[in-house]
Amino acid sequence: MLWWAAAAAVPFIIHLLSRRKFRRVPWGAMQFLLAALKRTRRRLRMENILLMLLRMGIFLALATAFANPQIGGGGLLGAVAGGSRTVILALDSSFSMQARDDQDRTAWSEATKTARSVLATLDSQKDAAALLTFGSPVHLETRLTRDLALVRRRLDALDPAEGTTDLLGGLHAIEGLLAEPGLEEDFPGEKTILLVTDLQKSAFLDHGSSAEEGGPGGDADPELLQTLRRLQDRKARVIAVGVGGGAVFGNVAVTELANDGRAFISGLTGQIQCRIENFGDRTTSGELRLYLDNEESYVQSRRVVDLPGLSTGSSSERERVVNFDLDVPKVGWHHLMAQWVDDSLAVDNRRRLAFRVRDHLKVLAVSGGGGRRDALPATFYAARALDPLIDDPLRSGGSFVVKEISSIAFPSEKLDGYDLVILANVSEIPAAKAMELEEWVRQGGGLLYFPGPSLEGAGRIGRSGGVVNQLFFRGGQGLLPYPITRLVGSDEFTESPFNLQFESFDHPVAKYFEDPRIQPGLTRIPVYKLAATEPVENAVGVRAIASFFPTGKGAETGERYPALVEKRLGEGACMFFATSADTAWNIYGATPAFVPFMREIAYALTRRRELANLLVGATLVEDFPPSVTKIRLTVGDAPAEERAPVLSADKSRAEVSLRQIPKSGVVVIDAIDGADQLSETERHRVAVINPDTSESNVEPADSHWLADQFGRNLLLVIDDPTELSKPVDEAAKGGLWRLFLYAALAFLLVETLLAWKFGSVHALETSS
Amino acid sequence: MASYAKYLDPRTLDKIKGLELKARLIVEGFLAGQHASPYKGSSVEFREHREYVPGDDVRFIDWKVYGKSDRFYIKEYEEETNLRAYIVLDTSGSMGYAGQGVSKLEYAKYVAASLTHLIARQQDAVALVVWDSQLRKFIPPGNNALHLKDIYTTLAAAEPQGTTDITTLLGTLTERIRRKSVIILISDLLDADGPSLARGLRKIRHKGHDLILFQTLDPDELEFPFDRLTRFEGLEEPQHVRVDPKALRAAYLDALRDFQQTVKAGCVANGMDYQVLDTGRPLDVALTTYLAARAGAR
């Protein structure tokens, strides 16, 4: 069509011809004519040229418009007349794409519609396409293929995921795709990558930059920039197609559902905390419901009113914690679901918590010998604080069941099945048992260590070593947070005892005693002797919760000694309490506050990182005994699927995994145990998958910001997907065609005005 | 009397044959619209006697005095007329331009004939100078019928030709006209050089002549109404300009206005009259201007 551009020569020809077409007038007043010509010659010449150029411009613009101009000579999809197109369709399947607008449309439906339209414009004989989604987890649906029908089928079968936008992951996947050997031979030429997305700003932002919340600032992700440059080097043109209209809509998300960290004990009341946050603009109200197991009817609800939005409240005001008291159900795996009323983005209105309910926690109390003041075991008070009915053989109920043994019996005691081990006044155990204990803690067990009189023996403790330190500190690698260097204080009750003081109240143990009415019951108890430790700077996982400080005459020294120190070790934890568990060095055991103190410590040490609560895109791995031969998996509403577990190399366990789970929901895992050795709790497990609510803050990137950060060469942003959904020629017409047409009309208007004002053609020839 | 007024319209006059008739119709038409004329012709009146010298016209010897004194005395009279009027007609090629109506030369002829008729009617002597780049015809002042017929015939025969050389003309007139006269110059003044024209006018004035300058221009030359691409070909010189007139109109009118201002300033400085004659308009403008100038000369 561009041969029409030759028509631009028409004005020039007309211009020349028109100079030959004139009328003759015999004229007398030539002197004035020549004077006028002399005055206006330069201006006339300029106008003459301008007029001619304008007329040529009109024809050029018209010719260009009718020639269907295309960006880069190949149109938005890289079409070159007579050539082939290679289009990689990358669809954002993050859950923000499921946000519904006023007309109940989602960005996802618009994205798939756009993709279908693009595929419809491709020629199955020449063109090629690939399809992938880049909501976390990124998933490559098809590699580059000319089998466009296959791509269409995959597209039709696509379901939006519920992960976050992983634009970088998507582009890396495309890079991998383009780097495949032989690809350039099969699909030569420029590739067009269409990122069909709702343009969430967080997907493009360098999260380390100092962007103001809701503001236009912030820098682009440098890795994203580098990736785009690499793609440009590979002759791949990246176009981001905005879908969903870029509208900011109201969205409230349930961002957290948890208990206070304690194990769920059947028959007790659990504290459930649900955090909701308003990511929308305006204040909103609604009802939060709590479902247990059966998600068809809720067990409790809370009305939340006037939850401020972005424009009405600060970040702290926009979120609120709602508490529920849960009557913990029977033993076994259960799950909770908190649901906010459905808003425009329903995915994050639900959040689930999977938990195992137990009938009690099992505690092993190991006593290193009686104190000198009485014959009671060192664990006597601690054991009874946890298990008040320990001496009643018919006891039932209670959170803790404690078994008391001596340190002599400890080496032969199996630790499996226990949740907590208390070592009181234990200064020497076999090294192997110490290592077993350490490994058991690393696997998730809890250990509470009390020193006692048994440490007074020679070589037990010391700055340069000692048996206790060798067994339990191990140069910082062991269970104890700090090495025990000496014993401070007196065996006799003096007038200068030590008192306990919490460092802060944000630890669960300390938090219980934050109430000033309760706190003195613990902090004013005199401690006459303690095991001093030497803090290790920058010790990993170590946290001092409380200190001892001398009172009376000793107060003048100003010394402080770590009293309660926690060390996280692997999945478990160890706590060191610097004085005796019995009344050898203090009178804690005889005071009421010691009971909640012990119980809070026990609860803190029996917390578990809930592996059964995962985010979308994560991988779920469950271990079973090797006797398990089959696993039945039920993911969400999908039909149950049976799998054979994979045996570990040493055949000690069988493992089943679910990789990159794309959607939120409940996963039920039933093990079929050939040997019938598993308890019901072990056989039937529940896990839940939740959406990552970092995607909930739906904030489309400003197109100017994108252009500033990336430039059109690296990332061309198209806000209107209909430009792509038209055939290539139509797309060109829709954009540039109109542009050139308008240009032609503008030229014509200016030319008309100039011609009206100054004359249509100026001939300047004179014979004089 | 009103029927004469139509003869002031050059388009009407164009249809009438005979320049003398045209002149009479013009003047009668003009005077019909006037009040009683304040300008009356003078009769011949005796002034004095003087002694005869050889070469005097014997017709003016007073034979009665000779009879009484036996000496020859010549009777001297007052001037036969109030003034001598020289009508100078430019017949250069540019005067041949005719737009929608009569040509400038035709219009100038009507003016010249009308003035001849008017001047003669007032018993003044009228002379005619026909000129382009050179003097073509010089008819000395006179007032009798034969003289007037000679003027009308000369006017009727005048054709546009040659170029304009007004400086030479004014020099020639200064030399040829020795007595104080009224010089009526009818020309389009095209190709005249403003400063040279001013110098010529000063010479005329220096000799004590009165001058009435009628610049005869066609409406086309005054308004430049052309709107199509046009090749303007010189009437006096073999030159041409091909141009879009719309683009030049403003500059053309500026140049014309500047020239007219220069000429008018020169005339005013020398106490002369300057009048533009639009060939598309009636001829009474010329006659009124003449009579006004004549009144000023008395």
Overview of this structure, please?
The complex is a heterodimer of chains A (768) and B (298). Chain A has 768 residues and is an alpha/beta fold. Chain A has 17 helices and 33 strands. Chain A is elongated, with a radius of gyration of 39 Å. Chain B has 11 helices and 10 strands. Chain B has a 6-stranded mixed beta sheet with strand order 5-4-3-6-7-10, sandwiched between helices. A two-stranded antiparallel ribbon of chain B has the order 1-2. In chain B, strand 8 and strand 9 form a beta hairpin. Chains A and B meet through strand 1 and helix 2 of A and strand 8, strand 9 and helix 10 of B.
Please render the helix and strand layout as text.
The complex is a heterodimer of chains A (768) and B (298).
Chain A: H1 9-18, E1 23-27, H2 30-66, E2 86-91, H3 107-121, E3 128-133, E4 139-145, H4 148-157, H5 167-178, H6 183-186, E5 191-197, H7 222-233, E6 236-242, E7 252-259, E8 264-265, E9 269-278, E10 284-292, E11 298-307, E12 319-327, E13 332-340, E14 350-358, E15 361-367, H8 380-386, E16 400-406, E17 420-424, H9 431-442, E18 446-450, H10 467-473, E19 484-489, E20 498-502, H11 508-512, H12 520-523, E21 529-533, E22 542-550, E23 561-569, E24 572-577, H13 594-605, E25 613-615, E26 620-624, E27 628-635, E28 641-643, E29 646-647, E30 654-658, E31 665-673, H14 680-683, E32 684-690, H15 703-714, E33 716-718, H16 722-725, H17 728-758
Parallel strand pairs in A: 2-3, 2-5, 5-6, 6-33, 8-14, 15-16, 15-17, 17-18, 18-24, 25-32
Antiparallel strand pairs in A: 3-4, 7-9, 9-12, 10-11, 10-13, 13-14, 19-21, 20-22, 22-23, 23-24, 26-30, 27-28, 27-31, 29-30, 31-32
Helix pairs in contact in A: 1-2, 2-17, 3-4, 5-7, 8-13
Chain B: H1 2-5, H2 10-14, H3 19-32, E1 46-51, H4 63-69, E2 73-77, E3 84-90, H5 104-121, E4 125-131, E5 135-142, H6 145-157, H7 166-176, E6 182-187, H8 194-206, E7 210-217, H9 219-223, E8 230-234, E9 240-243, H10 245-269, E10 273-278, H11 284-297
Parallel strand pairs in B: 3-4, 3-6, 6-7, 7-10
Antiparallel strand pairs in B: 1-2, 4-5, 8-9
